[in-house]
Amino acid sequence: KREHVIRQLERIKISGQLSPRLFRKLPPRVCVSLKSIVDEHFLCAGHIFLGFSKCGRYILSYTNSNGDDDFSFYIYHLYWWEFNVHSKLKMVRQVRLFQDEEIYSDLYLTVCEWPSDSSKVIVFGFNTRSTNSLLMNMMMSDENHRDIYISTVAMPPFMYCPSCQDMAIAHPGDPNAKCLQHGFMLHMKYQVVYPFPTFQPAFQLKKDQVVLLNTSYSLVACAVSVHTSGK
Fold first, then answer.
1. Residue 185 has pLDDT above 50, yes or no
2. Which of 153, 190, 160, 162 has its CA nearest to residue 175?
3. Is 200 helix (H, G, I), strand (E, B) or coil?
């Protein structure tokens, strides 16, 4: 006999674990087609949808674009969409990843959040393949090195704080006019060598607001946080 869902939830509160699964399959009433909540022109624009943020409020997607010739570089954007099962997704924020970097090959992206910190996301971009184009041979002095790109971006606020409201008044019409805490972006880049260590979020993001980087030669711990004025 299947255990009642209320009893299962009580067990989660006590033990922190759920065994067996809460549902054998998802109820149809909570299943929606992506095409039913996303406008067609966003799908045609090449949006790659990643799933929900940890808070469950947003769905994340990204796009990449480049020109038709070998001298064009790739540009990546990350998007937050407010989710409502009964209406279309509403875009609430768009940012360019890895700003000021000239990226001449497609990247494999990993989008992560820290275990208990829902105020920001961290995005890793890996150059996973090489190319024999003349431009890449010119740009890469040593094919045994691979570039790793990182962008840490603030999550959109649930509601505008007083500082965000002041920024919106000072910069009318600018959707990215937010305070430092709710609008910051941090971009980094480093190189790795053979055997090209992979990124392991469960280990390298184990501590909130700290990212552990394996640069092939050393381990570097970087703390990422925003301090309000006066602190």
1. yes
2. 160
3. coil
Average pLDDT across the chain, whole number:
83
Distance CA 99, CA 119 (A): 20
The model's pLDDT over 3-30, given as tens digits with 9 standing for 90+, comes to 677 877 877 776 666 666 666 777 787 7
Alpha helices by DSSP H, listed for the chain, are 5-15, 34-37, 40-44, 134-139, 162-170, 180-183, 201-204
CA 75 distance to own-chain centroid: 15
Alpha carbon distance 114, 203 (integer Å) = 11
- Structure token pair of residue 125: 């971009």
| Sign of the dihedral defined by the CA atoms of residues 103, 109, 114, 119, in that order | positive
Residue 27 DSSP symbol: -
CA angle 190/95/210 to nearest 5° reads: 45
Phi, psi angles (nearest 5°) of residue 198: -85, 165
Cα separation, 78 vs 83, in Å, equals 16
Strand runs labelled E in 11-97: 48-52, 58-65, 75-82, 90-97
Sign of the torsion angle spanned by Cα atoms 168, 172, 173, 174: negative
Which positions ≥6 away from 215 have C-beta within 8 Å?
A: 190, 191, 192
Structure tokens at 148: 């790793």
What is the number of other CB atoms lying within 10 angstroms of the CB of residue 105? 19
